[in-house]
Design brief:
The protein is of the alpha/beta class and about 1550 residues long. It is built from 40 helices and 59 strands. It has an eight-stranded parallel barrel with strand order 12-13-16-22-23-24-27-28, surrounded by four helices. Strand 32 (about 730-735) and strand 33 (about 740-745) form a beta hairpin. The longest helix is centred in the N-terminal third of the chain and has 42 residues, at about 365-405. The chain is globular and about 135 Å long. It starts with 6 loop residues before the first strand and ends with a helix. Residues about 330 have low confidence and may be disordered.
């Protein structure tokens, strides 16, 4: 099946606010929201304002998305809700857990689709090449096409017009007098052009020229002379609606009068003439500010309190008998000053209630109280005065900086003498009245009819927070003179919503509609200081008119984080970036790499993959229209090579009109009034008002723009930037499907070659592959024509410089390349070494490069074979009629022949398992060994590398440097027998092609081959498993994969042989003896520590894991063989702890036999016709306790007889001493520990046994430290009746009762010898004894009057079940451990519902960790949650890992805890059950995350406290995987 739809998956995590993270998606993508681990199991609702089908977008209208669970309900790992993205724009999502508040939120941005031409051809965003025009320089509308044709002929496909509206009196392109009217300058005499005419021209360019047009929208300000702002002054910040600006206005007026005084010569005698020319004069100006200006305006008075008036009011209050509230005032409590809303001098007042609290507490002396208040108010007024002094210091510094820049600095405008036309400082506020004295002006600020026309100008503030409006209350920008002011424009005051300023919102909405109607996109002028909620609203208006609106902006926030706020909320498509920001060629090259594309040789990404944060799509320009001219800052020779570097960027690129024509000055958006030249292909160089390809670098730019569009259209989306030397930058664009490349080499000239020495020695360069042609080569040359002089009518460039360009050359015909030698690096790396001859500063050469023909063919054939896995490989694929025969067979077919044991070899096998076969896992020098010899070892590493395209990883280096890894992968399989050898041959044949591709592509295609093989292998695995697995969730499948991971056949068979009479037993030819032998899979306890040899198979571990890993997964035959194989080793009525192939078995555990019996019961219940196993022949290795090991088949008996023997032996009582007791079998155990006891209590029916020197259950840590004095002492002997063994025995006895009643099991009782008599105890009786005694003996009520409680003084936790009964250390019985949950799961009938539920709640609260269960109550005095097996110390409880089961969090008990919780919750009713299901899902989600991240693809044996990693744990453990899978099966 081929997947073509692109799907991105966003994982939601609780309290994750991603509002400043950019997620970009394309139309046609599917976005899936999935629950992260913190949300799984919770009732999560996802809301989005993405419009439902057929509805228009409403930013404030959110709807919830419907959850889809493709595999049912067992867990939340695959549950998702989705959006099919078909509409461009910015959309918000949030999610909550059934409550009102948001638990997390973010934005997604969907890119628009741009179309041109009559066929509405799509223009990819990376194809865009844009040129900016100052609209006022285009002349009358009927001459526009002649001037715009220049862009068409130079290869641009997008034009950006500055605003086309009526301009303000400054004539700045961005100061608009009327946003709704077309600039009348565009209408020649006798014509009256309208927006419809502009729209017709734009449409003509789009359909006939394939040219897209965008223009600016200016929301932040309007021209100061806009007629509508006089009628609607509420649309600006004035002294009526913004009285907080009054102090700033007063200072501004005072500075204007200072301008007039300086201009009139009033300060000349003091050394400050109108023409300010020295720093000394600046010092005099500073002194005048402090002596004449600030004292006159007394700005502090606007913030001060009228002390006498306030004290008088306070006195009246006291005279009237008012008292404080009595609450008192804390030490930090301040006297509250109330700001005068009109901001008058001395207008602030005192909150008299706080005055009462502060100043009338002590005594009744009114005068004393008033005196204290007066003193405090005078202190406060002084503080206000000091604060104002600091503001005035800042204002002074800003004034000095401005005057110095504008009048003294060499890089400044040198404005000359101070006049009223060229004032000392740009005014911050409009003053549309006749001149008068400052004193006459002051009262006007309180006269509403006049004050409403004192409007604040707009500007920008260096380093200000772009998300804060600097004209609103709380900002002192105007007062501190920090605004770089645009004196021609008034800042607009929108408020928070349209109702706050209806006229302005309506006016600007109409302006937006006009713009969006006629233009494909907008540039948001001054975006970073446009109120973001205003831009958001207006863009919503625009997108209502034009859904695929292209939005560009230039942001000066100084922070990518803040940039993202604008990009995400506004849905900005492209952010303008500028090559002129680079100080050298190295930085210029870095920007190319930064702004787009993948690394060359990147991995093939799956079509369904996580949604990852992006950087904003770039519009990378040579220079923007409002910045300085590159020729002035660099050199004329740099224009072409820097433009070539920009053009090779994998993003939108462009320039501004004049750059290509080498205009040697900035074309001012304010002062320029000349027109652009028109296109005339026949014009001579330097002809005024005309231009063509002979002008400037136009011919070079045409070639570059053609190349840029071609590369993007054809999928050359991989980028490599090479800094050849200090001035030379090589940029490679590579196509990952055809493996063609284009390489440009540009020699920059940041300094003028006429004045700076550039070396004639240019380094040679190696280009991998075969150079097909020189696409073009171009050099900037000076020619003999009249030098540049500024034309009065048209904007002209430097006629004495041009570009010499040649296109589509053979390498031998190049003037820049001296020679190109072909060299071969190994059998698969063809390289051409280029030696340059004429790569002078200002030169560019572009090569088209293919792989050498042989590599090209081989890669095409390899892609042909890979296309069986994904359609992505179809492009560039070839068939190979002569290809290896094995590749003619689909890999799926070859994999279908593999058994699950074969798949264990193919996918897994850790180092120890591989070494048993004489090999080992693959190790990467200077890095690390892989986790597995099989494919999973590779996949685990590549899954980390692939999404990040981490091609510098040691793994990728190893692949590029040699064939060692590919040889390892195939050789490991072809040396084996059977169908797996054919898979090895298939891989070997695929790798045969891989050996002959260029080394830089080896990681990409190695990954593709391995991923294809791995996914096919997984399909083969699941096809052999149960329907529960096949139809299960991702988590189910990952856990089920643990069955393949743990179950395998090594070089030496781990299981004792089965009876020859048994059918369907797998056999093989022994490679050493050449004889046939059985080869049943065995189950490893854990990897890597318990994987091979004697330590692979453990009775207890095998049968705890067998239900989950083999029965639930459908591996019934293999489960049967394991059950019967262990049955054959029964001795003393016990199943071995350590199997040792049977002959080396240790019978030192009391629990393995009960887990084995539970598995037989599970087999009978779960497997179709499972009861037949009871009659299966068991080949007894030890027919009697003292037998020597017998060969298979010499003593067979049916399984039911072996079961009866085990039961009978326990009732009789088992007592023996281990064979070979002593250090040869256990170097730590004391002598008494080798004595084994396992019996049944006659009164209670409980199994019991052990002693304080051995440990017969799973908590089997034996002390081994001399320093800690614990050698030979078990940490947890658990002698007596361990709770889980009572539960397991109860389960077995109950089952045997049922079997006998059904006529399936022939025995209804056990017969034992007591005091010389034969006594029969029925299973019915045994079952009843356990049932009637369990809660009496095990439940800890905590009630001191409870007659069943023999040791109330030992009770540590109430409402729980004991861990054991009858332990030699009685307090151990009362320890809270998770083992009772096992009994609850296998024998729930022993528990009363309410008690069981309470005990489970205690376990959840005290024992449940992130992944596992604490093995001991954290309140216990010997609890320690960190396991360190290497730590030897004098702490008895810790030394040499003595606390193995005294706190560390083991995973497998979690499965039993959750299963027990589900069972009893269902008994309690729907509400309890639903809550429990949520808990279960939440717990399982953490296991899912661990499985996803683990390179072992497993769950660990244990973790340290609170889920911390434990380095001494097995990385993946059979029973951990099994019991979690059982929970999912129960769900």
């Amino acid at each position: 099946m081929f997947l073509t739809k692109q799907t991105r998956v966003m994982s939601l995590n609780d309290m994750e606010r991603l509002d400043r993270t950019l997620f970009r998606l394309e139309q046609g993508f599917e976005l899936q929201f999935r629950l992260g681990p913190t949300l799984q199991g919770k009732n999560v609702l996802v809301y989005t304002n993405y419009p439902q089908e057929g509805q228009r977008f409403d930013r404030f209208k959110f709807q919830s998305l419907e959850w889809i669970n493709p595999t049912g309900h067992e867990d939340d790992s695959d549950k998702y809700c989705k959006l099919d993205l078909e509409i461009a724009g910015s959309y918000q999502y949030y999610f909550s857990c059934g409550k009102e508040e948001k638990n997390g939120s973010g934005y997604i941005v969907v890119d628009p689709i741009l179309r041109v031409g009559p066929e509405r051809t799509i223009v990819p965003l990376d194809c865009v090449t844009i040129q900016t025009y100052l609209s006022k320089c285009l002349g009358p509308l009927d001459e526009w096409l002649d001037r715009l044709q220049v862009a068409k002929e130079a290869g641009y496909n997008m034009i950006h017009f500055t605003p086309l509206q009526v301009l303000g009196e400054s004539r700045s392109c961005y100061s608009l007098a009327d946003q709704l009217e077309l600039n009348p300058d565009f209408s020649p005499p006798g014509k009256n052009y309208t927006w419809a005419d502009v729209g017709a021209l734009v449409t003509k360019m789009k359909t006939e020229w394939n040219m897209i047009c965008i223009t600016d929208v200016v929301y932040n300000h309007t021209a100061a002379n806009s007629k509508w702002i006089r009628v609607h002054p509420e649309c600006g910040y004035n002294m009526v609606n913004s009285p907080h600006l009054k102090p700033a206005w007063v200072l501004d007026r005072a500075l204007w009068h200072l301008t007039c005084d300086i201009a009139d010569g009033k300060y000349t005698k003091q050394g400050l003439p109108p023409a300010i020319t020295s720093d000394k004069q600046l010092g005099i100006l500073r002194a005048i500010l402090w002596s004449d200006v600030f004292p006159k305006v007394k700005l502090w008075e606007f913030y001060q309190v009228n002390v006498d008036k306030a004290v008088e009011q306070f006195k009246k209050l006291l005279d009237a008998g008012n008292k404080p509230s009595g609450k008192g005032v804390d030490a930090k409590g301040k006297l509250r000053i109330i700001q005068d809303p009109l901001h008058k001098r001395f207008g602030n007042t005192v909150d008299l209630q706080t005055a009462l609290e502060h100043f009338s507490q002590n005594g009744n002396d009114i005068q004393d109280c008033c005196t204290k208040l007066k003193k405090k108010l005078e202190e406060i007024n002084k503080e206000f005065m000091e604060e104002m002094h600091r503001h005035q210091e800042q204002a002074t510094n800003c004034i000095m900086g401005t005057v110095s820049y504008e009048r003294l600095a060499d890089h400044g405008p040198k404005m000359g003498a101070v006049t009223r036309k060229h004032p000392l400082l740009t005014r911050y506020f409009t003053f549309p009245f006749e001149e008068m004295t400052l004193e006459e002006e002051f009262p006007m600020m309180h006269q509403e009819d006049k004050a409403c026309h004192f409007l604040a100008h707009n500007g920008w503030v260096m380093g200000d927070d772009p998300l804060r409006n600097f004209a609103e209350p709380g900002s002192n920008v105007y007062l501190r003179r920090e605004l770089v002011c645009w004196g021609d424009s008034v800042k607009l005051r929108y408020g928070e919503k349209p109702e706050d300023c209806p006229y302005l919102w309506a006016h600007m909405s109409k302006y937006t509609e006009i713009t969006a109607k006629h233009f494909a996109g907008v540039r948001l002028d001054n975006c970073h200081s446009t109120p973001i909620h205003v831009a958001e609203y207006m863009l919503g208006v625009a997108r209502d008119v034009r859904a695929d609106l292209y939005v560009v902006a230039e942001l000066f926030t100084g922070s990518e984080d803040v940039d993202n706020v604008f990009v995400t909320r506004l849905g900005i498509t492209s952010l303008i970036r500028e090559a002129m920001s680079a100080g050298d060629s190295h930085e210029e090259g870095r920007l190319v790499y930064r702004y787009g594309g993948e690394p060359v040789g990147s991995f093939v990404q799956p079509t369904l993959r996580p949604l990852v944060p992006s950087i904003a799509h770039a519009m990378f320009l040579d220079v923007t229209h409002d910045n300085e001219c590159p020729i002035q800052l660099r050199s004329v020779y740099d224009s072409l090579p820097s433009s070539a570097i920009v053009s090779m960027a994998c993003c939108a690129t462009g320039s501004t009109r004049g750059y290509d024509e080498l205009v040697p000055h900035m074309i001012s958006v304010v002062n320029e009034e000349r027109f652009y030249p028109k296109w005339n292909p026949d014009a001579k160089p330097g002809t005024p008002g005309e231009t063509n390809l002979q002008t400037g670098i136009m011919a070079g730019k045409l070639a570059l723009n053609k190349l840029h569009k071609d590369l993007a259209a054809k999928g050359f989306n991989q980028v490599y930037v090479d800094q050849v030397d200090v001035d030379i930058v090589a940029v490679t664009r590579h196509c990952p499907s055809t493996h063609q490349s284009v390489v440009t080499v540009s020699r920059t000239a940041f300094k003028d070659p006429k004045t700076h020495h550039y070396s004639s020695e240019v380094p040679s360069m190696c280009i991998p592959g075969k150079i097909e042609e020189v696409v073009f080569e171009a050099r900037t040359l000076q020619r003999t024509v009249d030098p540049y002089s500024k034309d009065g009518q048209s904007i002209n460039g430097m006629p004495d410089y041009t570009v010499v360009i040649s296109e589509h050359l053979q390498l031998k015909d190049s003037k820049i390349v001296k020679q190109a030698a072909v060299t071969s690096k190994g059998r698969s790396e063809f390289v051409q070494e280029i030696i340059f001859e004429q790569l002078t500063p200002g030169s560019v050469i572009a090569f088209r490069v293919s792989l050498d023909p042989k590599s090209q063919e081989i890669l095409g054939q390899l892609r042909g074979y890979l296309s069986q896995f994904s359609r992505q490989y179809k492009a560039g694929s070839l068939t190979d009629p002569q290809g290896p025969g094995i590749l003619k067979i689909d890999l799926e077919f070859l994999m279908s022949k593999l058994s699950l044991a074969d798949l264990n070899t193919l996918l897994f096998r850790c180092d120890a398992e591989e070494k048993e076969d004489g090999g080992g896992v693959y190790g990467i020098p200077s890095w690390q060994d892989l986790k597995y010899g099989g494919l999973q070892g590779l996949i685990s590493v590549m899954a980390d590398i692939r999404p990040r395209n981490d091609l510098g990883h040691p793994f990728c280096d190893n692949l590029r440097q040699g064939d060692w890894m590919i040889d390892y992968v195939s050789n490991r399989l072809v040396t084996r027998e059977g169908p797996i050898r054919e898979v090895g041959k298939w891989l070997q044949a695929m790798f045969g092609y891989l050996r002959h591709v260029p080394r830089y592509l080896v990681p990409r295609y190695f990954d593709a081959i391995i991923v294809g093989a791995y996914t096919t292998a997984l399909d083969a695995v699941f096809k052999q498993m149960s329907s529960f697995v096949q139809n299960g969730s991702t988590l189910v499948k990952q856990l089920a994969l643990g069955s393949v991971q743990m179950c395998g056949v090594g070089r030496f068979t781990a299981l004792p042989p089965l009876s020859p009479a048994l059918e369907d037993v797998p056999v093989r030819i022994n490679p050493d003896t050449k004889k046939e032998e059985q080869c049943c899979v065995s189950l490893a306890a854990g990897l890597p520590h318990f994987s091979e040899g004697i330590f692979r198979c453990w009775g207890r571990d095998t049968f705890i894991a067998l239900r989950g890993l083999m029965l639930v997964t459908g591996r019934h035959l293999e489960a049967r063989n394991i059950i019967l194989s262990f049955a054959g080793t029964l001795r003393h009525g016990l199943i071995p702890n350590l199997l040792g192939q049977g002959v080396g078995a240790r019978f030192n555990c009391r629990d393995a036999v009960w887990w084995w019996l539970q598995c037989i019961q599970d087999y009978c219940n779960l497997v179709p016709e499972g009861l037949s196993i009871l009659n299966s022949p068991v080949s007894r290795m030890y027919p009697t306790d003292d037998s020597q090991p017998q060969p298979a088949g010499s003593h067979d008996q049916p399984l039911y007889e072996v079961i009866q023997e085990a039961m009978q032996r326990h009732m009789q009582g088992i007592e023996f001493r281990e064979r070979n007791a002593g250090p040869q079998i256990d170097m730590h155990m004391r002598d008494e520990g080798f004595n084994l006891v396992a019996k049944v209590d006659a009164e209670t029916g409980f199994v019991y046994g052990g002693n304080r020197f051995n440990c017969g259950t799973w908590m089997d840590k034996m002390g081994s430290s001399d320093q800690g004095r614990n050698r030979g002492m078990p940490a947890t002997p658990r002698d007596g009746s361990a709770v889980e063994l009572v539960g397991l025995s109860k389960s077995t006895v109950r089952w045997l009762v049922e079997l006998h009643k059904a006529g399936i099991f022939p025995y209804d009782a056990v017969t034992v010898h007591r005091d010389g008599h034969e006594v029969s105890i029925s299973y019915e009786e045994w079952n009843q004894k356990i049932q009637s005694n369990f809660e009496k003996m095990f439940y800890v009520s905590g009630d001191p009057k409870d007659p069943n409680e023999k040791h109330p003084d030992l009770v540590h936790k109430k409402g729980i079940y004991k861990d054991s009964c009858g332990a030699s250390s009685q307090w151990c019985d009362y320890q809270l451990r998770p083992n009772f949950t096992i009994a609850m799961t296998v024998a729930p009938e022993m528990f009363t519902l309410e008690r069981a539920w309470k005990a489970l709640e205690v376990a959840e609260k005290k024992l449940l960790g992130p992944l596992g269960m604490k093995t001991l109550d954290p309140d216990d005095m010997v609890y320690c949650g960190v396991y360190d097996n290497d730590l030897d110390c004098d702490n008895y409880n810790l030394a040499k890992g003595f606390n193995y089961h005294q706190g560390p969090e083991w995973l497998w008990p979690v499965g039993y805890f959750l299963r027990a919780k589900l069972y009893f919750a269902k008994k309690l009713g729907k509400e309890a059950y639903d809550k429990t299901v949520l808990l279960v899902k939440n717990v399982l989600s953490r296991h899912y995350v661990h499985l996803e991240k683990s390179p072992w693809k497993g769950l660990p044996e244990l973790t340290n406290e609170n889920g911390q990693y434990c380095p001494f744990s097995c990385e993946t453990q059979a029973w951990s995987l099994a019991t979690i899978l059982e929970v999912l099966h129960d769900l």
